[in-house]
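Work Package 4 report. The design task specified in the project plan requires that, given a folded chain encoded as structure tokens, an amino acid be chosen for each position. We show below one input record used in the internal validation round.
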């Protein structure tokens, strides 16, 4: 039951991410609603014109047909210009983020709801003004003049809201391009993914079964790309119906190639050999439950956010940018995320049927692998900078305080030993080496749980 609930929640998260990560859905919805409103409000004007109270009519548009056309034409023209400006500023921001920080941050900007809603407001105002403009009529011999006063007044209100939205958008954009804001957004996405896909450390989960020693039947990928999503419910149903054990070979986020193995399967212990029909059906359903895309997403990919944070750190350490302060900020964000992850059960995940029989083994990075992801490249590119090496030691020290599993503590100790060896090979002065030795000692003591800070 829990697996089914989690599968439904993950499918909903995939759908929400697919809509949120694209720039056009929210503006498109805004345009459709604006056109519908532009059709409905003139009808309301027609019905309410003769019964309009004078007090209310005094607040509405009071000009003639020509004046209404000028107002609506001015609104439509100005909003098209403002929309072009907004798109231009957004593209410049995306280019800056890509070149200065990491191209993998573009998805974060495209999914910004404030940007999407601002564009929706601008385009909706433009579409509404054009829709209402077609209903205005001058007086002729056959018909009376028609000026939709409520509709024109509402267009004025939308234009005023758009001006305010432009001011807020500029302020929001300035805040969004700050590295601290971007790192905070990425960290929040990582932790949200972990909460949805991993169980807390105190929660009992099925242990990973020992795979049979006999060679398994090969299941190959149907498409190439990044593994973006695994439909766990369909995968479990396929394995249960075939009475088989399926072990995926690639975690979410890895690159896969068509016609290359992505999984292996074996018959259950008491079901005998898989016949050709069951095997063919199982292969088809397993391949169909594995979805690929042209880019990684944070929906089920635990390591993607840490990859983004690490990319910011190593890009800041490149000779062309040379910004170790940004690298330290990125490492601090990695520290926060890893310390939160230490409270969850990572590593391979087992899907069991209603009888508790293990049916599917899903590979997933554990905390030691994620720690290597965060530390390896910053250590390589920043080994000559004592601040960067100190930031890595601070990461290990803080992580050492929260890890509880023996393998996690061993991973922290191993990484600290590698950092010590890298520091020893550098030509730091005595003061810098003393500070780094002190931090390394704090890591060891934090692992022993008896270190307390002393006041110099």
């Amino acid at each position: 039951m829990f697996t089914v609930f989690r599968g439904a929640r993950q499918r909903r998260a995939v759908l929400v991410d697919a809509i949120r990560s694209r720039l056009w859905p929210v503006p498109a919805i805004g345009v459709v609603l604006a056109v519908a409103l532009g059709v409905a409000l003139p009808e309301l004007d027609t019905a309410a014109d003769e019964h309009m109270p004078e007090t209310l009519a005094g607040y509405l548009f009071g000009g003639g047909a020509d004046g209404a056309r000028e107002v609506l034409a001015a609104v439509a023209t100005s909003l098209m210009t403002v929309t072009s400006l907004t798109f231009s500023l957004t593209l410049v921001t995306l280019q800056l983020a890509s070149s200065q920080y990491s191209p993998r941050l573009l998805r974060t900007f495209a999914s910004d709801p404030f940007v999407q809603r601002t564009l929706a407001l601008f385009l909706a105002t433009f579409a509404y003004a054009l829709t209402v403009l077609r209903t205005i009529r001058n007086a002729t011999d056959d018909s009376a003049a028609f000026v939709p006063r409520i509709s024109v007044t509402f267009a004025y209100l939308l234009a005023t809201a758009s001006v305010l939205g432009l001011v807020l958008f500029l302020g929001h954009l300035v805040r969004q391009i700050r590295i601290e804001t971007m790192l905070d957004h990425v960290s929040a996405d990582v932790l949200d993914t972990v909460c949805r896909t991993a169980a807390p450390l105190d929660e009992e989960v099925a242990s990973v079964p020992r795979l049979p020693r006999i060679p398994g039947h090969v299941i190959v990928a149907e498409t190439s790309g990044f593994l973006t999503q695994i439909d766990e419910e369909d995968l479990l149903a396929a394995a249960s119906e075939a009475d088989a054990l399926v072990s995926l070979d690639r975690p979410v986020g890895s690159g896969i190639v068509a016609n290359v193995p992505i999984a292996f399967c074996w018959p259950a212990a008491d079901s005998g050999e898989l016949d050709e029909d069951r095997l063919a059906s199982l292969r088809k359903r397993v391949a169909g439950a594995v979805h690929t895309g042209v880019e990684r997403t944070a929906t089920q990919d635990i390591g993607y956010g840490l990859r983004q944070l690490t990319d910011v750190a190593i890009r800041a350490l490149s000779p062309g940018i040379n910004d170790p302060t940004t690298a330290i900020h990125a490492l601090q964000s990695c520290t926060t995320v890893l310390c939160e992850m230490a409270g969850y059960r990572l590593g391979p995940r087992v899907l069991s049927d209603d009888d508790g029989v293990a049916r599917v083994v899903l590979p997933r990075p554990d905390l030691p692998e994620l720690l290597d992801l965060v530390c390896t490249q910053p250590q390589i590119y920043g080994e000559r900078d004592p601040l960067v090496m100190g930031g890595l030691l601070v990461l290990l020290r803080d992580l050492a305080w929260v890890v509880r599993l023996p393998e996690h503590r061993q991973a922290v100790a191993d990484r600290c030993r590698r950092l010590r060896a890298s520091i020893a090979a550098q030509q730091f002065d005595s003061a810098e080496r003393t500070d780094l030795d002190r931090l390394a000692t704090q890591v060891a003591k934090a692992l022993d749980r008896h270190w307390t800070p002393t006041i110099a």
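DSSP finds 16 helices and ten strands in the chain. Validation will be extended to a larger panel in the next phase.
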